[in-house]
Amino acid sequence: MNYNNVQFEAAFGTLKQLPKSNKAEIAFAGRSNVGKSSLLNKIFNRKSLARVSSVPGKTITVNFYSVGDARLVDLPGYGYAKAAPGEKRRWAELMEGYFKTERDIRLVVQLIDMRHKPTADDMTMLSFLREMGYPFIIALTKCDKLNKTEYNARLEALETELADYKDIVKIPCSSVKGDGIAAVKAEIEKVC
């Protein structure tokens, strides 16, 4: 897969706008401010193709990026407490609609901030992915923000925190230093 030829295709803010799936899709999911857009930019080797913000909840649309015969999909972040209730409902409908419509979803890259215990929303998402039968991996983001002792302690803690997902590939990632990016690409290329 040639990530140098990636193109932004479109963004959709409601379920009715979502086009039918006609390519293999790799979806990137995670809570607000976990680093989905930054990780995508690192995969694409671009600085700002996917919009990045320091303010949580900025990705409020489903964003499609075309890469050859596949699409990488940046989903809205979940769990942003300051969003208005109506906005939260719209996001929930959009996310659920994305996953429950007939799409060729080959892989979900579920992002979890490595620095912290997975949130209740993270655990709900993991459970949903497993129940629905979607293949997924876990990208443990922001690993570069931990020193070696903290990094090893978090890896050990995650063994317990994600005990129900021992069989799932977990990749520590940094969108700053590039850690784990090659491994994420390798997982994507296994299914495309």
Written description of the protein model:
- This protein is of the alpha/beta class and 192 residues long.
- The chain has a single domain (3-191), classed as Rossmann fold, CATH 3.40.50.300.
- The chain is built from 5 helices and 7 strands, in the order ββαββαβαβαβα.
- It has helices at 36-44, 85-100, 120-132, 148-161, 181-191; strands spanning 7-12, 24-30, 62-67, 70-74, 105-113, 136-141, 170-172.
- The protein has a 7-stranded mixed beta sheet, with helices on both faces.
- α3 (120-132) links the parallel β5 (105-113) and β6.
Keywords:
192 residues; Rossmann fold; globular; seven-stranded mixed beta sheet; 33% helix; 5 helices; alpha/beta
Biggest sheet character? 7 strands, mixed
* Number of separate helices: 5
Based on Cα principal axes, name the global outline.
globular
Q: Please state the average pLDDT score.
A: 89
Share of residues in strands: 15-25%
The N- and C-terminal alpha carbons lie at a distance of: 8 Å
- The CATH architecture term is 3-Layer(aba) Sandwich
* Strand line-up across the major sheet: 1-3-4-2-5-6-7
- Residue stretches low in confidence (pLDDT < 50, at least 5 long) are 53-58
Task: Indicate the structural class.
Answer: alpha/beta
- C-alpha-based Rg, rounded: 16 Å
Query: Quick one: how many beta strands?
Result: 7
Q: Could you say how many structural domains there are in total?
A: 1
* CATH homologous superfamily title: P-loop containing nucleotide triphosphate hydrolases
Encode the helix/strand succession as letters.
EEHEEHEHEHEH
What is the level 1 CATH name?
Alpha Beta
CATH topology: Rossmann fold
The amount of helix comes to 25-40%
